[in-house]
Design a protein that fits this description.
11% of the residues lie in helices and 32% in strands. The chain is mainly beta.
Length: 234
């Protein structure tokens, strides 16, 4: 297990690095490789490579026990030691089992519930799915209409035999107190009904194709409607 750090910079520089554990904000103490809030030695040295890799600075931390380098994300800050340790770069690092090249096991090969804590998905699956689904496929309840008398859906596809009921218009409101079916009656009367009283100030219009007076209108001498009474079907 190891942590490998590589950084490119101008040749001849004196560089160092620090390691922050992002889970708790602690820093690596280079005196004993423990993570502390205020390490005694917080910056380690980066060594420049020889030709042909001049300008590449690197270090390998080979003592990375998982008890200190916990699984998770880390930030590696690169410091210019000759310039008051100013930070000139930051590298991201992920560690698992004390190594920066983690290998994650295939979840499909993990035994369930195994070590999954109670309430986690792994624990719930392993605890509740404890038998083959095929062993639970036999229906043992009472009769179900959709099973005992199934409906052939294909017989409804052509819509043959369907018709619109006149009552279907009753729930559609056109004006206050007037539904769609009632509204059609004066429309038909106005366009095709018998008219009487034209020019007298009171015009009466019969219903279309019947003798019921559907519209009674009071008009002025130029035909403007002053008042209208409708006799709508119930």
């Amino acid at each position: 297990m190891a942590v490998r750090i590589r950084f490119q910079y101008s040749t001849g520089a004196v560089l160092g690095y620090s390691v922050e554990r992002l889970a708790d904000g602690l820093y690596l103490d280079f005196t004993d490789s423990l993570f502390r809030p205020n390490p005694a030695s917080i910056v380690g040295s980066l060594i420049e490579d020889d030709t042909p890799f001049k300008g590449r600075y690197r270090v390998t931390i080979s003592s990375t026990p998982s008890s200190q380098f916990l699984d998770g994300n880390y930030a590696v800050s690169i410091h210019n030691i000759t310039a008051s340790n100013i930070v000139i770069g930051i590298l991201g690092l992920t560690i698992a089992a004390g190594d920066d090249m983690p290998w994650y096991p295939d979840p499909w090969s993990t035994s369930l519930p195994g070590s999954y804590a109670v309430g986690t998905a792994g624990s719930m699956l392993g605890t509740n799915l404890d038998a083959k689904i095929t062993t639970r496929s036999i229906y043992a309840g009472g009769a179900v209409a959709s099973v005992t008398a199934p409906v052939t859906v294909g017989a409804n596809n052509d819509k043959n035999g369907y018709q619109l009921s006149s009552a279907g218009f009753d729930s559609i409101s056109i004006e206050p107190g007037v539904n769609a079916r009632q509204a059609l009656s004066p429309i038909l009367a106005a366009s095709a009904g018998v008219v009487s009283g034209a020019g007298t100030g009171t015009i009466v219009i019969k219903g279309g194709n019947n003798t019921v007076s559907r519209i009674t209108a009071s008009t002025d001498n130029v035909g403007n409607r002053m008042g209208v009474t409708l006799n709508l079907p119930s």
